[in-house]
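Sample entry copied in:
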Amino acid sequence: MERHLFREEHDLFRQAFRQFVDREVAPHQAGWNQAGIVDRTAWRAAGRAGFLCPWMEERWGGPGGDFLCSVVIMEEMARVYESGFALSLHSDIIVPYLHSFGSDEQRARWLPGCASGEIITAIAMTEPGTGSDLAAVATTAVKDGDSYVLNGAKTFISNGILCDLCIVVAKTDPNPENAHRGITLFVVEAGTPGFIKGKKLAKMGMASQDTAELAFEDCRVPAANRLGEEGSGFIALMTKLQQERLCVAIMAQAAAEQVLRDTVRYCQERHAFGRPIARFQNTQFKLAECATKVEVGRAFIDKLVSEHVAGKSLVKECSMAKLWQTEMAGEVVDTCLQFFGGYGYMLEYPVTRAFMDARVQRIYAGTNEIMKVIIAKQMGLS
């Protein structure tokens, strides 16, 4: 499919980032997977090369590109099956909170480091007792002089071990009647007394991403680290979740495309009963179905990316993309893995890792069941 989304500068950016991936990412993937964490040196290398927060203005230390550069990065990381080096999580999901809701003083303080790789970010929403229902968070932030005292626990936090800054979702008003208006965002810096990074969690997929439990025990955070006004957190989260869900859909789409390309090549090379398995009708039909899903998905996602870059509100459409693209990716990867036979069960094969990586896409950024609730509301059904 011919794509009209990118301009010449994006093609040059893709070429440069592909070289970076081949030099700085691919040779280290096995080590990162085994360690369960990405080296900080890789983050700094990405920052030096202008591949962190590529959309950020030069005045804040960014390279001055746009969101389409971020799309290129997501697609190229999928090309090498790297799901744990959380460039997009940092650049396109977390840092935008600082950029959009931070004061000029906060931007000047944090954004240059976010772009250089000196500051790695995390966002702590999910708790042991609540996931997609953000209004039900139990972590509290009590005002005490010119500080807030945070208490609570978070879990499944990506970049939880590496993070230098963590945006924490907390309740500043515990009144249940103010469930949405009582949420506030705080930027907690690593090393703050009472900010405890717990154990690194062992996951089914995304092996090289450090995912952790976090705890806040009488953690005193300066009022200057509050992000936005008190009580503005829920609106901020709802504002930014559109791009987060779009990013998940982009990555799911790119992963499905790469797995399909590699599976077609494998089926042309792998022989059974004296001929390539690509010549069996079942293989052809199954791969034809996968190719059709991938092409449909590509048309939809490129349309949404174009409209998102143009500034359109796409709450319903991004929820649809997160729902459909992640379901589609799961189906395509599962179908493709079958053609690898026993090799498809071996961790040394990228398709196996892609299968494990794909499953969480239907869970994080709001479960796919929540996506259906949002779509139904946007349709006026609720």
